[in-house]
Specification:
266 residues, alpha/beta, three-stranded antiparallel beta sheet, 11 helices, 41% helix, 17% strand, elongated, binds adenosine-5-diphosphoribose
């Protein structure tokens, strides 16, 4: 627990931290990660560089089952103790924002208030014509995706563009997530947060996708203390000051209780 104690000691001296998260923090909410064994990019290798669009175009006949499986887990997922712990650490004033690569909305549902979603949010739709965005509740997304998947089964992938709901400008509303090669979202704010933070808590990412994975190095280069929580080492471990081996759902609540025990509340 030496590393955990060192991490607490450091965090207690900070007040401008940032959490940087990947799919690993949602693993204990039942959403499989992308590149671990059994993950979607482990099963469909082209996804790791081409994302879901590459997978669907290479496997059109499996599109309904792939999308169905992906959305089923997303729609059932709830924040786990890892998400809730980050919201607690924010509430105690040690972290000011979360930068996430996840699209599952679980940080917001856990109560985190400043969340930069680099790869978008699956519960948001954006018009491909006028850019208008709207947020769908879980049951609305469940219904609209259920309809799209049913139409996929009947008409096939090539008609998919027509299945999306219409914007009042007449354009198609697509899920507001970032596909490979598209511009990431909230990057300016996330970069500002990374270059001004006094510590960065990296949780559950392999650190292989850019520009997201460049942010921890920016934090490090600007003097931040970098802590990583992951059951195994990642591409970012070498730049971290402390590596806490373990799952988010187990280690982050331990971090929170140790902070609560040691912090001096004035
Ligand atoms: N707690 C913490 N970390 C975990 C847990 C857990 N319970 N389970 C797995 N992990 C770690 C794995 O060890 C791995 O380092 O989470 C990481 C998951 O890595 P990836 O599957 O590559 O996911 P991620 O890093 O989020 O991928 C980044 O790639 O395809 C794109 O858009 C996609 O946002 C995604 C991006």
């Amino acid at each position: 627990m030496v590393d955990m104690n060192k991490a607490i000691e450091k965090i207690l001296t900070c007040n401008n931290g940032v959490a940087f998260t990947g799919s690993g923090i949602s693993a204990e909410s039942g959403i499989s990660t992308y590149r671990d064994a059994g993950g979607i990019w482990d099963r469909y290798k082209e996804g790791s560089s081409g994302g879901m669009l590459a997978v669907l175009s290479n496997h059109p006949e499996e599109a309904p089952e792939i999308l169905g499986g992906f959305f089923e887990k997303l729609l059932k997922a709830k924040p786990n103790p890892g998400h809730l712990a980050l919201s607690d650490i924010e509430g105690m004033g040690y972290i000011q924002s979360i930068i996430t690569q996840n699209v599952d909305n679980l940080h917001r549902e856990a109560g985190s208030s400043v969340v930069y979603e680099l790869h978008g949010n699956i519960f948001r739709q954006r018009c491909m014509q006028c850019g208008k965005k709207n947020f769908q509740k879980r049951d609305e997304l469940s219904k609209s995706m259920g309809d799209i998947i049913q139409k996929l089964k009947e008409h096939g992938l090539q008609e998919m563009g027509k299945f999306f709901p219409r914007c009042d400008c007449g354009g198609n509303m697509r899920p507001d997530i970032v596909s490979f090669g598209e511009e990431v979202q909230d990057l300016i704010e996330a970069t500002k947060a990374s270059t001004s933070c006094d510590f960065m808590l990296i949780v559950g990412t392999s650190g292989v996708v850019y520009p997201a994975a460049s942010l921890p190095m920016r934090a490090k280069n600007n003097g931040a203390f970098v802590i990583e929580v992951n059951p195994k080492e990642s591409e970012l471990t070498s730049l971290c000051d402390i590596f806490i081996k373990g799952s988010a759902g187990e280690m982050l609540p331990k971090l929170v209780s140790a902070i609560k025990e040691n912090r001096v509340t004035n």
